[in-house]
Amino acid sequence: MSEAYDYDLFVIGGGSGGVRAGRLAAGLGKRVGIAEEYRFGGTCVIRGCVPKKLFVYASQFGKAFEDSAGFGWRAGPAEFDWPTLVANKDTEVARLEALYRRGLENNGAEIFESRAVFEGPHEIHLLGQGRTVSAERILVATGGVANQLESLPGHQHCITSNETFHLESLPKAIVIYGGGYIAVEFACIFAGLGVTTTLIYRGDHILRGFDHDVSGLVQETMIKRGVRVILNRHFTEVEASGIFGRRVKLDDGTVIDCETVMLAAGRLPYTAGLGLEKAGVETGHKGEIKVDPYSRSSVPFILAVGDVTDRMALTPVAIHEAMCLIETEFRDNPTSPDHELVPTAVFSQPEIGTVGLPEYAACMEYERLNIFLARFTPMKNTLAGRDEKMVMKIIVDADNDRVIGVHIAGPEAGEMAQTLAIALKMGATKADFDRTMALHPTAAEELVTMYQPSYRIVNGERVD
Ligand code: NDP
Q1: Which atom of ligand 1 is nearest to 234's Cα?
Q2: Angle (nearest 5°) at CA 76 between 75 and 80
Q3: One fold for both 7-146+268-330 and 155-265?
Q4: Of all atoms in ligand 1, which is nearest to the CA of residue 146?
């Protein structure tokens, strides 16, 4: 490492990817600096996965109280207190943030609570400190920001998921714009907490990109649970007016009044104002840093991981990319991140857990497919009297029996997807699933007891 620079590695961004890289490099004895302009932990810990999942848990109790009656419970009237949830969530987020910082400090990384921007290819200006430092390698791990839809008239009257975590009070009615992960998860959270919830999506089917059987079940269940889902519609304007304070206008002339309007129209790589042009780093049309398979930008000593690269906006992926980068840059072991068969969950209600290709994508890649599909009532819903189904789908390459996708919507689907991902990574065949003993009584046993295909697909055409 060259003494010509202040640091061997300077990390911009204290989220999951940046902190992991900084911590590992410092642990190897490298001189590491890391700058974060807001709070350590990034989107996942501060305003994403962690607080969101805590809100998901909170939103499930109402239905659990209702369901308990079928199991003999007579609970009194339940009351929910939003400020308690927000305060307890803040405590947990602060605890995790402290762990992130401690991991860096214990390994000897130098922390800067400051915005950092490029002043040159090796030079970083720390705005909060009014000084410039130099580094042999620089890692950009600035993550993403919510798309504020700035061309939408009245967008300034809307919030994004960021603000939901700090609302002073729970709105009585909310309108959410979008049909992806965040829109669907928050629609379920708010509906579960008793908020009158409307979801407006421009497409004809929420959760584009997911297998249609699982996204279909989620959409159907959300509607059963009282979410008003309006498809094929666009916002044309949001006004600060109407009896509740916000008025949403749609492209067919529909007007909806509510207290809160949440935009969930995707996230964009956070590179604005970073000064990447001063370092000669190339970006793509969304502002993402273009990287090679080793997370190197167009300037080889400037690296990037996580959402800022717009590869797969998932926390474990950012962490994995960071770990690979450390192997490549500091352990003389070139390692490129593996983005194949990444399991993912949508914490909707019901939850989605998925790994591998959805049916529509498998049809484009494979000539002959066997599809195994089960739709059933989860056991707990029977006594609860809850008319909600669960769905499981296994997609198999008929030419070699390999399982290429598993898609689940229902209780604990995310937990199942994590373990299924191990089997798929190992190249499991449908015969491997079939010779695995069922674990009874579980919902997951269905995955190993679907012996006959529900239908076959040949050259993209369904043949029953
Ligand atoms: P998504 O990409 O999942 O969804 C964005 C939604 O916004 C889509 O429905 C999209 O429509 C719609 N949209 C995009 N642009 C516009 C526009 N100009 N006008 C109207 N609608 C628009 O993004 P999210 O923001 O929900 O989440 C960002 C990423 O964060 C996810 O992709 C995921 O990787 C990650 N994430 C993961 C979670 C998890 O693991 N559980 C939870 C939350 C986020 P269309 O489909 O038509 O393009």
Answers
A1: 20
A2: 105
A3: yes
A4: 25
Mean pLDDT of all residues in 195-199: 98
Q: What pTM value is reported for the model?
A: 0.97
Distance 137 CA to ligand 1 centre (A): 32
pLDDT digits (tens, 9 = 90+) for 261-291: 999 999 999 999 999 999 999 999 999 999 9
In tens, the pLDDT along 57-73 reads 999 999 999 999 999 99
Of ligand 1's atoms, which has the minimum distance to the CA of residue 347? 41
The CATH class of 155-265 is alpha beta
Give the CB-side neighbour count of residue 188, counting CA atoms within 13 A: 29
Residue 128: pLDDT band with limits 50, 70, 90? confident
Residue partners of 24: CB distance under 8 A and separation at least 6: 107, 322, 323, 326, 330
Give yes or no for residue 1 having a pLDDT over 70: no
> Which of 375, 371, 370, 356 is closest to 423 using CA atoms?
356
**Peptide bond between residue 83 and the one before it cis (omega within 30 degrees of 0):** no
Q: How far is the CA of 183 from the centre of ligand 1 (A)?
A: 7
Atom of ligand 1 nearest to the CA of 182: 26
CATH class of the region 344-463 = alpha beta
Domain ranges of the chain: 7-146+268-330, 155-265, 344-463
The fold of the 7-146+268-330 domain, in CATH, is: FAD/NAD(P)-binding domain (3.50.50)
Cα separations in angstroms, 368 against 262, 292, 397, 447, 458: 42, 33, 6, 21, 5
Instruction: Give me the chain's average pLDDT, please.
Output: 97
Question: Rounded to the nearest whole angstrom, what is the distance from the C-alpha of residue 9 to the centroid of ligand 1?
Answer: 32
Residues designated as active site: 440
Strands laid side by side in the 390-397 sheet: 344-346, 352-356, 403-409, 390-397, 368-376, 455-458, 461-463
In a mutational test of the pocket of ligand 1, which residue from 50, 161, 202 has the highest number of ligand atoms less than 8 Å from its CB?
A: 202
Question: Does the structure show a pLDDT above 70 at 361?
Answer: yes
Please tell me the distance between residue 147's alpha carbon and the centre of ligand 1 in angstroms. 9
Pocket-forming residues, ligand 1, beta carbon under 6 Å: 149, 178-183, 185, 201-203, 208, 264-267, 313-314, 344-347
DSSP string, 91-110: HHHHHHHHHHHHHHHHTTPE
For a mutational test of ligand 1's pocket, the pick from 181, 286, 351, i.e. the residue with the most ligand atoms closer than 8 A to its C-beta, is 181
- Among protein residues, the one with the nearest Cα to ligand 1's atom 9 is 179
pLDDT tens per residue, range 12-37: 999 999 999 999 999 999 999 999 99
How much of the chain exceeds pLDDT 90, in percent?
A: 98
